[in-house]
Design brief:
With 553 residues, the chain is of the alpha+beta class. It has three domains: 16-179, D-Maltodextrin-Binding Protein, domain 2 (3-Layer(aba) Sandwich), CATH 3.40.190; 223-432, Dipeptide-binding Protein, domain 3, CATH 3.10.105; 435-552, Muramoyl-pentapeptide Carboxypeptidase, domain 2. It contains 16 helices and 15 strands. It has helices spanning 57-68, 108-111, 117-120, 183-192, 205-209, 239-248, 251-257, 286-295, 326-337, 349-357, 377-383, 400-411, 415-430, 445-455, 474-477, 549-552; strands spanning 38-42, 83-90, 93-98, 143-149, 153-158, 174-178, 223-229, 299-300, 306-308, 311-312, 314-320, 341-347, 365-371, 434-440, 494-499. It has a four-stranded mixed beta sheet. Residues 1-52 have low confidence and may be disordered.
């Protein structure tokens, strides 16, 4: 997507707000590979502006241990999961000891700014995101923080004391980061010269390229837009509904219509370019989506809208107020085709975070951007139970199986083991959670003979719910019942698909004809295949073309 230097407000003290140069940290490295990795960081002693304190190894230790602590909620805590302790033999050296040798150099050490221990040590880790430091950061980088006006701007001035050894004071005397959410207003600021550079909406890129006073720079970024579900209340507490929505979204249309082609369709939470990505085809399948929704009890009414037990299928999509919500409207349209009503709820960024992170979860679904990283720490921040309550724990979706798989990513000591463990995490997240249900296994020969006698006894048909369009004498002739059944040899079984979390039900005969819509038949907990179980009708034969396409498939 087209990007520039503009960014909005952020609320994590472990992000770029300290505005330090990473280059001042890692100046020497020594490593041991037998059981643990030891990294020595030589820290330049530099005074922190406006405070009688110097950046030292104690600040490095404080920062890393705070970032590792799940209570802090740092999105990349997973990168430091194997960090055992940080030693500070002197003011200029920090020694990091790991319980398990990482398979590579922890990239988070190149990206995590150092925090001032003397200002933050008294703040509980669980309160770090709300510390006053976030709104008045202190640093020793090339710029000094001056002021923040909420919803308007951040202002910085040149640090004239910045060391010559690190490049010296910058040529820019003053830097203002303006908070401008509306895309057309931002573009107008660029065109008028009020803004020097900015991240623009993809839809504005072609317009900007035609302006001779502007230059568009685009490059790959690890930023994923995700639709996250609240799996703790209906309708998304049902895995079938979540899967149905996933199969309903036309990602390619969103990319072309809303993002002007500046994106790639993803089949999972990891960018396809990542070596850790699980190879998986991105498939849109409305027919299967319909079948899953039917199986979950959400059936279409006369006007196409779905409902269950008289309650319409209506969800609220939470999003941040910025632009024309083109992506949200396309999602809304895709789900409307499946009979799902979507109400788009646009809120301010702070209100969005408050609702997304609140416990218990009080939203249906939300659309948000997920900042990525090469080590996939963001994935652990979203789904690893060890990081419950982290900055990215929007959906609070945690399972013992996922926790076990995340444990494998932390204990991996080779590149191959790391790739395998991360792909296992993705496979578990993508799993459809379907199982097999057995209806009919062994059938004694005497039962077959009894059925033959019943079909040829000359009596009336009786209850025709299982064979509504055929006379009972024709059931053997047409092959619906075999005179010599393989069920009698134990080599044939009748199976269907059932969600793992489906409630237990005892199958019974349909009250309505077995060919009737699922909503009219007796309750069943399996996927709707188009007819009831044991339906002796041509509609049961998928190649006959009588069943709807999504059920035949």
């Amino acid at each position: 997507m087209p990007v520039g230097g503009f960014h909005g407000e952020r609320d994590n003290p472990l992000t770029v707000r300290t505005l330090r140069l990473h280059a001042m940290l890692a100046l020497s490295l020594r490593a041991m590979v037998l059981g643990s990795l030891v990294v020595s960081l030589l820290v330049l002693a530099m005074p922190q502006r406006s405070f009688a304190a110097t950046t030292a190894s104690r600040d490095v230790a404080f920062t890393l241990l705070a970032a590792r602590d799940p209570r802090t909620g740092y999105a990349r805590a997973g990168d430091l999961a194997s960090l055992d302790t940080v030693l500070t033999p002197d003011d200029s050296t920090a020694v990091l000891r790991f319980s398990v040798a990482p398979p590579g150099f922890p990239l988070v050490l190149c990206e995590l700014p150092v925090l001032p221990e003397h200002l933050l040590r008294g703040i509980p880790r669980s309160e770090m995101r709300r510390a006053s430091f976030n709104l008045a950061p202190v640093g020793n980088g090339p710029f000094r923080f001056v002021e923040r006006i909420a919803g308007q701007r951040w202002e910085f001035v040149r640090n004239d004391d910045f060391p010559i050894a690190l490049g010296g004071p910058p040529q820019v005397a003053r830097l203002v980061v303006a908070v401008v959410d509306e895309p057309t207003t931002k573009f107008a600021g660029l065109a008028s010269g009020d803004l020097d550079f900015a991240g623009i909406a993809p839809s504005m890129a072609s317009l900007a390229r035609r302006d001779p006073t502007l230059r568009v720079v685009d490059y790959p970024v690890l930023q994923t837009s995700g639709l996250l579900f609240n799996a703790h209340r209906p309708p998304f507490d049902d895995g079938r509904v979540r899967r149905a929505v996933d199969l309903s979204i036309d990602r390619d249309r969103i990319i072309q219509a809303a993002l002007a082609g500046y994106a790639r369709a993803a089949s999972g939470p990891v960018a396809p370019e990542s070596p850790f990505a699980l190879p998986r085809e991105n498939v849109r399948n409305p027919h299967t989506a319909d079948s899953l929704l039917d199986a979950a009890g959400w059936h279409r009414g006369p006007r196409g809208a779905r409902a269950r037990d008289g309650k319409p299928m209506s969800i609220e999509l939470l999003t941040v107020g910025s632009g024309d919500q083109a992506v949200e409207q396309l999602v809304q349209a895709d789900l409307a085709e499946r009979g799902i009503r979507v109400e788009i709820r646009v809120v301010e960024f702070g209100a969005f975070l408050a609702r997304a992170r609140a416990e218990p979860k009080a939203f249906d679904a939300l659309l948000t951007g997920i900042p990525g990283d090469l080590s996939l720490a963001y994935l652990a921040a979203m789904y690893d139970g060890r990081q419950r309550g982290s900055a990215l724990d929007y959906s609070a979706f945690h399972t013992p199986r996922l926790d076990s798989l995340f444990g494998r990513t932390r204990s991996a000591v080779t590149r191959g083991a790391l790739v395998s463990s991360w792909r296992s995490v993705q496979a578990e997240l993508a799993r459809q959670h379907l199982s097999l249900k057995t209806y009919d296994c062994y059938r004694p020969e005497r039962a077959v003979r009894a059925m033959w006698r019943w079909a040829h006894d000359g009596a009336r048909d009786g209850d025709k719910s299982f064979y509504p369009n055929t006379g009972k004498r024709e059931l053997f002739t047409l092959g619906y019942i075999a005179a010599r059944s393989k069920h009698s040899t134990g080599t044939a079984v009748d199976l269907t698909l059932i969600p793992l979390d489906a409630p237990a039900l005892s199958p019974r005969g349909p009250d309505a004809p077995c060919t009737a819509p699922a909503a009219q038949r007796a309750a069943d907990n399996s996927l709707d295949m188009g007819t009831a179980f044991d339906c002796l009708d041509v509609k049961s034969y998928t190649r006959a073309g009588r069943a709807p396409a999504h059920q035949a498939e």
